Amino acid sequence: MKNEISLDLSSNQDILNTINHLMHNFNEIAKDSWDNSGIEFHNSLNDTLITLEASIHPNIPGYSELAFYLKATENKDNFNKIAEYIQLVIEKNSVKPIWMNEEIPMGLSAGFSLANADKRYIINFIDLLRTLDLNHEVYETFFIEILLGKWKICDETLLLLAARSGSLSGQWGIENYEIPPLNPEQKNTYIKYLLEDTLKSKVIDTGLLIDALEFLDISIDNEKFKSLFKNYKPIFNESNIPILNHL
Fold first, then answer.
1. Is 7 helix (H, G, I), strand (E, B) or coil?
2. Using DSSP, how many helices (H) and how many strands (E) does the chain show?
3. What are the respective helix, strand and coil percentages of the chain, to the nearest 5?
């Protein structure tokens, strides 16, 4: 079956060949994966199922696909190829979101693993998450929790928090995470990213955004903030995004 993939996990060339195989046979593998409840990666040296040796989160199982991508991202030489795979998933999802099984969308494990290996790829993870149905998320919130815990408050995680407050809010927002107090510069960066994120959201819920700002102890004029949106859309564009001092 196409959802069962055998490789020598100790060979980086074999890992790269496997990712190429996943890309070139994406539709067939996705169908077999759904029909058989996931993709299984087997170690060709001893014919055993590849799974996580240690848990990365109490609520995330050590399933085979996650174990494969966490191993693949141990080598920086694989980053570009994995990013290509994530972009392919994003393009496929623009037509119809594709699920590996009832709990895990295709590409989620790759997107998380790459962002976990290098914070520069958090933006790729965000772009992927925007194509998913986060009103039915299962593990997404825990993957985000891991990234926030690992990378702490930095430019990339502020971008992730802003997206999670708006376009990625789904079943959960940012109130489920333990976020340290932001300094003034971080607050300015967050609100800049939050307003940029509204340009990527289908519908703007100003109440949801204001709740996120209050959670992060960012003081604004609520009515002035609401006036930035009309008919659930921003009235500004990328060239004239308001700054915190204006609110």
1. strand
2. 11, 5
3. 55, 5, 40
**The tokens of 2 are what?**
């196409």
* Residue 244 in tokens: 């915190």
Long-range contacts of 61-68 (CB under 8 A, 24+ apart): 63/38, 63/104, 63/109, 64/38, 64/39, 64/40, 65/38, 65/39, 65/41, 65/100, 65/104, 65/109, 66/109, 66/112, 66/113, 67/41, 68/9, 68/15, 68/18, 68/41, 68/109
The radius of gyration of the chain's CA atoms, rounded to the nearest angstrom, is: 19
In the block, tokens 């340290």 appear at 180
Give the residue among 77, 50, 75 at the shortest CA–CA distance from 64: 50
The pairing of beta strand 4-7 with beta strand 40-43: parallel
Which one-letter amino acid corresponds to residue 196?
E
The CA-based dihedral angle spanning residues 97, 100, 101, 102, taken in that order and rounded to the nearest 10 degrees: -30
> Could you report the per-residue pLDDT of 20-50, keeping only the tens digit for each?
999 999 999 999 998 888 999 999 999 899 9
> In one letter, which amino acid is 235?
I
Tell me the mean pLDDT per 10 residues along the chain, length 247.
91 98 95 90 94 96 97 98 98 89 94 98 97 91 97 98 94 90 95 96 94 95 94 94 71
From start to end of the chain, where are the E strands? 4-7, 40-43, 48-49, 229-230, 233-234
Q: At what angle do helices 206-215 and 155-165 cross, to 10 degrees?
A: 140
